[in-house]
TrEMBL record:
Coiled coil: none annotated. Keywords: Dioxygenase, Iron, Metal-binding, Oxidoreductase. The keyword Oxidoreductase applies. This is 2-oxoglutarate and iron-dependent oxygenase domain-containing protein 3. Residues 36-138 form the Fe2OG dioxygenase domain. The keyword Metal-binding applies. GO terms for molecular function: dioxygenase activity; iron ion binding; L-ascorbic acid binding; oxidoreductase activity, acting on paired donors, with incorporation or reduction of molecular oxygen. Pfam families: 2OG-FeII_Oxy_3.
Length: 147
């Protein structure tokens, strides 16, 4: 399904996101490591079959995945053009902050309890994104995917 060109593109995008996160949070990109899971998501209005399919519940990535210190999302489809619903919501005391997905938009944040969040249910169409996460603990690092 994937070619070496696809993996080269992924590595380039991952490195660029890693550098931007490091710059934004004032840390060295060398102290950040890719961690699992890194995944593509395809969300539509299909009924959830397992609890893992119930993406709309509020959660904290560090609690859910353990190894995450920084989470990034690269959106691959557009809100209102490709799907309805599916916005990313930071659940802040007093007022929520909402991110409307746009193809090519990258959102990143620290993965701890300061960033409780959820995704609205998708009502129509399909929402595509890739989650690329980083850890500061080399024991939780993984290599880039390869063929």
């Amino acid at each position: 399904i994937f070619t070496e060109e696809d993996f080269a593109l992924y590595r380039d995008v991952r490195q660029r996101i890693q550098q931007k996160i490091a710059q934004a949070f004032g840390i060295s990109s060398a102290s950040m490591y890719l961690t699992k899971p890194t995944f593509f998501s395809r969300i539509n209005s299909t009924e959830a079959k397992t609890t893992h399919d119930e993406y709309w519940h509020p959660h904290v990535d560090k609690v859910t995945y353990g190894s995450f210190d920084y989470t990034s999302l690269l959106y691959l489809s557009d809100y209102t053009e490709d799907f309805g619903g599916g916005r990313f919501v930071f659940m802040d005391a007093g007022s929520n902050k909402t991110v409307e997905p746009r193809a090519g938009r990258v959102s990143f944040f620290t993965s701890g309890s300061e960033n409780l969040h959820r995704v609205e249910k998708v009502h129509w169409g399909t929402r595509y994104a890739i989650t690329i996460s980083f850890t500061c603990n080399p024991d939780h690092s993984i290599g880039d995917p390869v063929l």
